């Protein structure tokens, strides 16, 4: 039986994510010298079962994915995923490289890794400020996979929680969409919500 989370819980998670995303946008602006805005308009907290039953969850086979595993008072995986078109548009907007550039594949991977790392660091920094407890991080990894594979590879059970946050990027006049997925292991969702709601 899945746990239902209140609007207050979801709003609290959205606020924390927006703080982290705001920091990430500031870092991206400095590094790329492009005006980048990021927003998190939609946030959901669902169970693995609900996730698997979803239609249209962006389950493409080659989403550009940067993910980071963490352990501590709460444990899980945070990832940023971009559909192919959004990934290509984001890379070209940031680097100025055109499609067909011989080195574009290598540039693409390095750029997406850097952007993904900045976003994840912003989000996890924001979460860490709430938890006030050290977390141990694995080395961030880049891959191209489906969002369902990302969740199925995580060490989760049906009582665990999955935070899905649709992220919108704007680079100049270009719209790019991505998804932040935070998969929390047993008990970690409750720990996070208790910390957030105690502020």
Automatic annotation (TrEMBL):
<dbReference type="GO" id="GO:0016787">
    <property type="term" value="F:hydrolase activity"/>
</dbReference>
<protein>
    <submittedName>
        <fullName>CheC, inhibitor of MCP methylation</fullName>
    </submittedName>
</protein>
<keyword id="KW-0145">Chemotaxis</keyword>
<dbReference type="InterPro" id="IPR007597">
    <property type="entry name" value="CheC"/>
</dbReference>
<keyword id="KW-0378">Hydrolase</keyword>
<dbReference type="Pfam" id="PF04509">
    <property type="entry name" value="CheC"/>
</dbReference>
<feature type="domain" description="CheC-like protein">
    <location>
        <begin position="11"/>
        <end position="45"/>
    </location>
</feature>
<dbReference type="InterPro" id="IPR028976">
    <property type="entry name" value="CheC-like_sf"/>
</dbReference>
<dbReference type="InterPro" id="IPR050992">
    <property type="entry name" value="CheZ_family_phosphatases"/>
</dbReference>
<dbReference type="GO" id="GO:0006935">
    <property type="term" value="P:chemotaxis"/>
</dbReference>
């Amino acid at each position: 039986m899945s746990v239902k989370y209140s609007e207050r819980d979801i709003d609290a998670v959205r606020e924390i994510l927006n703080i982290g995303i705001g920091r990430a946008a500031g870092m991206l602006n400095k590094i790329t010298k492009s005006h980048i805005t990021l927003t998190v308009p939609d946030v959901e907290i669902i169970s693995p079962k609900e996730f698997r039953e979803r239609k249209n969850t962006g389950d493409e086979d080659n989403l550009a994915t940067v993910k980071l595993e963490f352990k501590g008072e709460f444990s899980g995986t945070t990832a940023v995923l971009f559909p192919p078109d959004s990934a290509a548009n984001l890379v070209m907007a940031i680097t100025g490289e055109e499609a067909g550039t011989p080195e574009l594949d290598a540039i693409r991977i390095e750029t997406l890794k850097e952007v993904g790392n900045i976003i994840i660091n912003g989000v996890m920094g924001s979460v860490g400020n709430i938890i006030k407890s050290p977390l141990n991080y694995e080395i961030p990894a880049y891959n191209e996979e489906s969002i369902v594979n990302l969740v199925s590879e995580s060490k989760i059970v049906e009582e665990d929680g999955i935070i899905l946050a649709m992220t919108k990027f704007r680079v100049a006049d270009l719209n790019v969409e991505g998804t932040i997925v935070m998969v929390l292991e047993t008990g970690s969702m409750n720990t996070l919500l208790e910390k957030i709601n105690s502020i």
